[in-house]
User: Fold this.
Amino acid sequence: MIKTRADLFEAAAKMMRMCDEAGVNYQIKFDGIEININQKLSVLTDYSSHRIEFPLSIVEGRPVFVGDELYIEDGRKLPCVNIRNDVFELDAGNGWRCYPRNDHVSWNPPKPKTVLVELLREDAEELAKVVTFEGRIASAAKKALDK
Assistant:
C-alpha cells in the first residue's frame, strides 16, 4: 500500500523496471482506468497516491492489475489477488490458489487438447458396441422425456 511519497516512487520504479524488462509501455490505473504514462511520468506526482494502482506483473506483454482475470490451464478464469516471489495468487472462490507466473496463467483460454488413441481391432469393435448401446439408452431416455 502506498502511504508516503517514497512508497509512491518505489512502486513506480518497480513498475518501470518490470515494464522495461518486458518491453511494454509504463502503465498505471488511476481511479480504475488504465493509463499509459510513458511520456508523462510527472503524472505520478500530480495525482493523489491513494488513487494510483501499479501493475503486479506482466503476462503476454500486458500488465496485470489486482482484479484482472487470468485463465489457468484447466480453463477457469480467476481474478488475480496478488503476486509474491513470481507466483500469482488467484482467488478460486474456495480460498487462495497459487500458480507459477507465465507457465500456468494466460490472458487467453487454453486450447483444447486432442488425444489420439490407437486401438486393436477387437477393442475398437467392443468400443463400437458400448457406444451403440449408450446411444440406444440415450435415445430411449430422450423419447421417454419427450412424452
Observations:
- The helical segments are 5-22, 43-46, 101-104, 121-146.
- The radius of gyration is 25 Å.
- The chain is about 35% helix and 25% strand.
